[in-house]
Structures are given as structure tokens and as C-alpha cells.
Automatic annotation (TrEMBL):
Pfam families: DNA_photolyase, FAD_binding_7. Its EC number is 4.1.99.3. Its cofactor is FAD. It comes from Nesterenkonia halotolerans. It is an enzyme of class 4 (lyase). InterPro entries: Crypto/Photolyase_FAD-like_sf, Crypto/Photolyase_N_sf, Cryptochr/Photolyase_FAD-bd, Cryptochrome/DNA_photolyase_1, DNA_photolyase_N, Rossmann-like_a/b/a_fold. Belongs to the DNA photolyase family. This is Deoxyribodipyrimidine photo-lyase. Residues 2-134 form the Photolyase/cryptochrome alpha/beta domain.
Length: 462
């Protein structure tokens, strides 16, 4: 027997999956490949998924289970400590190898390193593969050998690199029934998605998510195809108009690995280079965020520019009414409120509005960027450990390649520029221009001046 246990994490697909493909290549009979997903809410430093991401995960795993079944591969579900589960399950299944796709966050790398050191002592070979990035962080360096801290030269280097070809979905190894029959009784101990209670029930707030998304591997492929066929040609201009929302909406599929960046890169390069250059630069920005997280693992919770430690941001508990007004879309600034309501309803907010919403919270209301990042972590279907904090630090001015600290988005000017007819705002704020809609909770001009004063005080520090 040459059984391989494939540990899925943020790579919930069957095509262009190196770890799965290599396991299948070595397989000789049904049952030689067993898939595993571990719901890890116990490892130190590994963030527990937010509510919207848990909703997506449920459906992504359901889709993955069906797709693997077509290949004759059972998917086992376990929750708890990954090291303990892998040690016990490898023994129960008689697995000689464990495959997984590499992760790049600090706590996740520590978990993986400890397991990779422990399993060989039990005679189990461990192999890891790239599944989430075009180019892994240690392969992209400046001329002096360090990591890039500015996006433009980073993109200049990787935009001309070939990430290599994608891999097809493996051929079926036989029937699922034959595979399951080959497994020991430990197979019966698998957990179920229903037991994990990832879906909201009391109350069920996910109706907007259900009507907006198809969180499957096939849904990601369909979205990619439709975007490249009908929208990418106008992406340069149309991406800034939230009423039309001609953005790709591929981010949650990339976040959960139902699409690989190589699949997106390969499909986009079949189009005219001029039509996809701006879109691919956004894929490059995602890549940049993950490289930052690898080299600066404190990114999710610490200012990358230490001088910003002196900025007098307030916590959520110090400004509970203002934070609640922002979170629920009741600030009195329609551009921001529409975005926050879109987020709550669909698990998504248009990127142009995200920037203005984050700016209002950080620079006008003076609330710590980490509070906003945590709210987005809980409510976005595409929140990941790299892009979410990196983008919040970009707006705050505390990150690498951040927006100039003095850039403060004016939500009224943003509305006039990108939604002059009010189509986006009216879609999300039906009570606009009625007594039910609140007046602005803060003076934009005065709060802007206060923020600039604070920023100027710290600009020379650190």
C-alpha cells in the first residue's frame, strides 16, 4: 500500500493542485489517496474565521467533497489540533506520506514546521507544494537581496515572470465506494459539516450571501470565464463605478483556493495584453500583500511603520456609538453607509468604497485601523490574513507602500465623482432624503485638520 494523506487548507479545489496531483500520480488503487480538512481553532496565533468566511467555507467544503468523490477520493473532516490529528490519523490509515500546500503566515508556518519535523520520526514522509501564489516570497528579492517594500518595483519584476503552467484535474482513481471500503474503521470517526455549525441559524443572516455568490470551484471558473469574456476590456474605467460593479469578484475564490492565481494568470494571458494589464496588476497587489505577510508576520496586528505607534487612535470601546454607526451604515455619509450596508448584506464591498470607508473610520473618526480590520475580517467573504490587514495599513499610512499619510478620502467628493446619479447609494439607502436617515456624525473638515495635525507630529519619528 502507498497511501497518501492530502491535507487541504486554503486550497479547496481539484484542478491545478500540486499536492493532490502528485498524490494521485503515485496512487495504484482506490484508497491510496485520502483527503483531509482540519478546522483549526486551537493553534496559537492562527485566526479563527469570521462569520461570512465560515459561511463560504461550509459550501466550499461541500463542493470539494463532491468533486473529490468524483475522483474516488474520500474527504475526512476533523477539528482540533492539526499535529495531533495528523499523527493519529496517519497511523490509523496506514499513510506513508502527507502532502499539503504551503502557507505563509507566521503562526501557520510554525504549525506546519512542527508537524513537518515530527511526522518523519514516525516514518511518514512530508511534502509541501505551492498552491496560493504565482511566486513564493523567497523567490522574489530586490537587487540587494531583501524583500520589496514598495509595490511598483515588485510588480515590475513579477509581471514579466512566467509562473509556470497549470495542472489539470487528476483522473479518477476508481469509485468512492471502493476507496472507502479500503479504509480501516477509523473512517467512520469523521466529523460532518453540520456538526461544525458554520452556517448562521439564529438568526440566519446569510440570505444576501446566498443570492450573491456561488461558492464552489465550478462557480469560480464560471466567474473567471464570464469576467474575461465580457468585462475585462472595460476594466480600467468600469472598476471605479460601484453601481455597475464591473470588478472581477474573484477574490473569495482566490482566498479559499477554489481558483489558483496561476489559473487566473493563464486565462488572462489568452486575452489582449492591453485589456488585462490593469486587472493583472490587482492580482499582483494580492501577491505583494502575501509577500509582506511572509517577511513581516506581525502585519495583522502591528504598525509596519513604528512611528505610527504614537498616533492617538481610539479603540472601539472608547467610541462605541461612532463605531456602531460606521459598522451599520448610519454615519450620515451616504457613500460610506451604502458600502457598509452592501458589506453586511453580501459579504462584499466595492474596493473604491472600501478605501473611503476605511479612511472615514481611521482618519475622521480617529478609530484604530485594527478595529476596522477586525470588522472586515468578520463580515467579508474574501477576508484573508494578508490582504485585509495590508490594505487597512495602506489606508492608515502605517504600512509598507502606504498611501501618503496626508491622503484623506472625502466621501462626499467620492460620491460626486463615482456615483453622480446616485445609482449605487439609492440601491442601498432607500430612506435617503427622509427624516429616517441620520445627519453626519462628524464634521469632515474639522476632523481632517485634526488628523493631519496628528500625522504631522509623528511623520518625522521612527
Amino acid at each position: 500500500m502507498t497511501r497518501t494523506l492530502v491535507w487541504f487548507r486554503d486550497d479547496l479545489r481539484t484542478a491545478d493542485h500540486e499536492a493532490l496531483a502528485e498524490a494521485c500520480r503515485r496512487a495504484e488503487r482506490p484508497g491510496d489517496v485520502v483527503a483531509l480538512y482540519i478546522l483549526d481553532e486551537v493553534s496559537p496565533g492562527v485566526r479563527t474565521l469570521g462569520g461570512a468566511a465560515k459561511w463560504w467555507l461550509h459550501h466550499a467544503l461541500d463542493s470539494l467533497q463532491q468533486n473529490l468523490a468524483e475522483l474516488g477520493i474520500p474527504l475526512l473532516l476533523r477539528s482540533g489540533d492539526p499535529g495531533q490529528i495528523l499523527r493519529e490519523l496517519s497511523g490509523e490509515l496506514g499513510a506513508q506520506r502527507v502532502h499539503w500546500s504551503r502557507r505563509y503566515g507566521g503562526p501557520e508556518r510554525e504549525v506546519d514546521a512542527s508537524i513537518k519535523a515530527a511526522l518523519p520520526e514516525r516514518g511518514i514522509e512530508v511534502e509541501s507544494f505551492n498552491a496560493s501564489l504565482l511566486h513564493e516570497p523567497w523567490t522574489v528579492q530586490t537587487n540587494t537581496g531583501g524583500p520589496y517594500k514598495v509595490y511598483t518595483p515588485f510588480w515590475r519584476q513579477i509581471s514579466v515572470r512566467d509562473p509556470g503552467p497549470t495542472r489539470d484535474r487528476p483522473a479518477a482513481l476508481g469509485s468512492l465506494e471502493a476507496a472507502e471500503d479500503s479504509l480501516p474503521h477509523a473512517r467512520l470517526g469523521t466529523e460532518t459539516l453540520e456538526e461544525w455549525e458554520l452556517l448562521p441559524t439564529r438568526p440566519d443572516w446569510a440570505s444576501g450571501l446566498r443570492s450573491t455568490w456561488t461558492p464552489t470551484e465550478a462557480g469560480g471558473q464560471e466567474r473567471l470565464h464570464d469576467f474575461l469574456e465580457t468585462q475585462v476590456q472595460d476594466y480600467d474605467d468600469a472598476r471605479d463605478v460601484p453601481a455597475d460593479d464591473d470588478t472581477s469578484r474573484l477574490s473569495p475564490y482566490l482566498r479559499f483556493g477554489q481558483l489558483s492565481p496561476r489559473q487566473v494568470w493563464e486565462a488572462a494571458h489568452q486575452q489582449s495584453p492591453d485589456s488585462v494589464s490593469t486587472f493583472l496588476s490587482e492580482i499582483g497587489w494580492r501577491e505583494f500583500c502575501w509577500h509582506l505577510l511572509f517577511h513581516f508576520p506581525h502585519l495583522p496586528h502591528t504598525n509596519l511603520r513604528s512611528q505610527f505607534d504614537a498616533y492617538p487612535w481610539k479603540s472601539r470601546s472608547e467610541s462605541p456609538e461612532e463605531f456602531q454607526a460606521w459598522a451599520k451604515g448610519r454615519t450620515g455619509f451616504p457613500w460610506v453607509d451604502a458600502g457598509q450596508r452592501q458589506l453586511w448584506e453580501t459579504g462584499h464591498m466595492h474596493n473604491r468604497v472600501r478605501m473611503a470607508s476605511a479612511s472615514l473610520l481611521i482618519k475622521n473618526l480617529g478609530i484604530d485601523w485594527r478595529e476596522g480590520e477586525a470588522w472586515f475580517w468578520d463580515t467579508l467573504v474574501d477576508a484573508d490574513a494578508a490582504s485585509n490587514p495590508a490594505n487597512w495599513q495602506w489606508v492608515a499610512g502605517s504600512g509598507m507602500d502606504a498611501a501618503p499619510y496626508f491622503r484623506i478620502f472625502n466621501p462626499e467628493r467620492q460620491r460626486d465623482r463615482f456615483d453622480p446619479k446616485g445609482r449605487y447609494i439609492n440601491a442601498w439607502i432607500p430612506e435617503l432624503n427622509t427624516p429616517d436617515y441620520p445627519t453626519p456624525i462628524i464634521d469632515l473638515k474639522a476632523s481632517r485638520e485634526e488628523a493631519l495635525a496628528h500625522y504631522s507630529q509623528i511623520s518625522g519619528k521612527g
